[in-house]
Design brief:
Structural class: alpha/beta
Number of domains: 2
CATH superfamily of the largest domain: Metal-dependent hydrolases
Number of strands: 11
Largest sheet: 4 strands, parallel
Strand order of the largest sheet: 6-7-10-11
Length: about 475
């Protein structure tokens, strides 16, 4: 059993209050409103198979740290772009993790994996070179059983709703199959249009053609392009989507005149853009997405500030999402002003902003969210969804934005098995923060007891209209 006081403050009085508050939150259903679990996992409901392919190979948190220690991606089984052979022996990959397990000391990746092994698989033996094979065999045995199929685990985890994320040109067949099956689990999609909005995205022109084919619109004209984007939003809404998601390099927004916006689109669509046109177009499209959100009700999520694929040779060999994305300094006050001046005063619009630049919490994001009715703060994200990162988020935003301009926790994960562990960690950290405020006589305990379930369950459900 996991230590009941995991992540709680060491001070006895504060720890006791944290225990009391956690009791109000720990067993609530999981709202997972933003993430990257493959919907086919649940649509097909097949046994997971190899433990390494489940827990190591697709987890860029794990592979990036191993790569930093000289472990080659080939040896970890990560697929190469050129189709060259890589390690396919799951046991060998698992042993490689065990050999380098010390690298993960004090990291959230170790915490999540150990919690997953203990709470999902009832495996509490510490991972080491000597125990690697026994743990691998125990995992393989459990994964072969019906109780560990995706839908059974979904129900066991207490997931009330899970949002996946699909590109604008996805046919949403997995979600159609889920709906047709009549399964009671609620899985919704999220509209992620980056690959048809970003002119610098590899294959952008081809995707514009595909967007036109799917919608019957002329996507080489600005009017037709916007109509096609709206048509795909409508299709996503029909498939259950409650939000859109935008992972732009910067938080830049723009509010161009219709004529200037059309001229900009024609330049980038023809590949004749000026320097800076791609970023300007992405910024204009964020404002267009806000306009569309006022019409169709989809929540607008903005995830800026990652330098994608920073390691060019690694990208050439293995492609994206292998751990080579790096946070960058990000401006929000100036960058969001065009969008917020246009739509930010309308409480009917819901914009959720995330950051990888923690220096902006107190200086920019909390003051913005503490003023504009349309703006809410997403939780600590990606590199910062660690216990320390979650605590820093609360410490630096609460004094200016309060609790009610935040949206609770979302796990933003591809690792389906880690979802309950991530939510458990977030609930423990929030209850620790609330307990400290109670003990410091800054918040009455009865109000903290109301906040604990709100942060864990009610806030994300309301913010994402679930």
């Amino acid at each position: 059993m996991t230590d009941p006081d995991l992540l709680f403050p060491p001070d006895p009085r504060t720890r006791e209050v944290a225990r009391i508050l956690f009791a109000h939150a720990k067993d609530l259903p999981i709202i997972s409103p933003h993430g990257h679990v493959d919907p086919w996992l649940l649509a097909d409901d097949r046994a997971f198979g190899d433990p390494a392919q489940l827990l190591i190979v697709p987890d860029h948190y794990v592979t990036r740290l191993l790569y930093s220690q000289g472990v080659d991606m080939d040896a970890l089984g990560v697929t190469r772009r050129d189709g060259a052979p890589v390690q396919t022996d799951g046991r060998a990959i698992w042993r490689l993790l065990a050999e380098h397990w010390s690298v993960f000391r004090a990291t959230p990746s170790r915490l999540w994996l150990e919690l997953t092994l203990a709470e999902v698989f009832d495996i509490r033996t510490p991972l080491s070179v000597g125990t690697a094979d026994a743990i691998y065999d125990a995992l393989a045995e459990r994964l072969a059983g019906d109780a560990f199929r995706p839908r059974a685990l979904f129900e066991r985890f207490g997931i009330e709703v899970l949002a996946t994320t699909e590109s604008a040109t996805d046919d949403l067949a997995a979600h159609a199959k889920l709906a047709a099956d009549g399964w009671s689990g609620r899985v919704v999609t999220t509209f992620r249009p980056d690959d048809v909005v970003d002119p610098e995205w590899e294959g952008w022109g081809t995707r514009l053609d595909r967007l036109g084919e799917m919608t019957g619109e002329d996507t080489l004209t600005y009017r037709g392009y916007l109509a096609a984007v709206q048509a795909r939003r409508d299709a996503f809404r029909a498939a259950g989507a409650r939000s859109t998601d935008h992972g732009h390099p910067t938080a830049r927004t723009a509010d161009l005149s219709p004529a200037d916006a059309e001229a900009l689109f024609l330049r980038v669509a023809k590949g004749a853009g000026n320097p800076g046109d791609a970023d300007l177009f992405r910024g204009q499209m964020l404002t267009e997405m806000a306009r569309m959100s006022l019409d169709d009700g989809l929540v607008l999520q903005i995830h800026p500030g990652a330098w994608r694929n920073h390691n060019a040779p690694l990208f050439d060999r293995f492609g994206a999402n292998v751990g080579a994305d790096i946070p960058t300094a990000t401006d929000y006050v100036g960058a969001l002003r065009p969008l917020l001046n246009r739509f930010g005063n309308d409480p009917a619009l819901s914009i959720i902003v995330f950051t990888l630049d923690e220096s902006t919490y107190a200086r920019e994001l909390a003051p913005l969210a503490g003023h504009y009715p349309a703006l809410k703060l997403g939780p600590s994200w990606w590199f910062h969804d660690s216990p320390e990162g979650m605590m820093r988020f609360r410490e630096q935003t609460t004094e200016t934005a309060g609790f009610y301009n935040t949206v609770g926790f979302n796990d933003d994960t591809r690792a389906f098995m880690s979802i309950p562990s991530r939510h458990d960690v977030a609930r423990r950290v929030d209850c620790s923060f609330l307990a400290r405020m109670v003990v410091e006589h800054r918040l009455p305990e009865d109000e903290a007891a109301l906040l604990a379930p709100q942060l864990a369950y009610e806030f994300p459900k309301k913010a994402y209209k679930l």
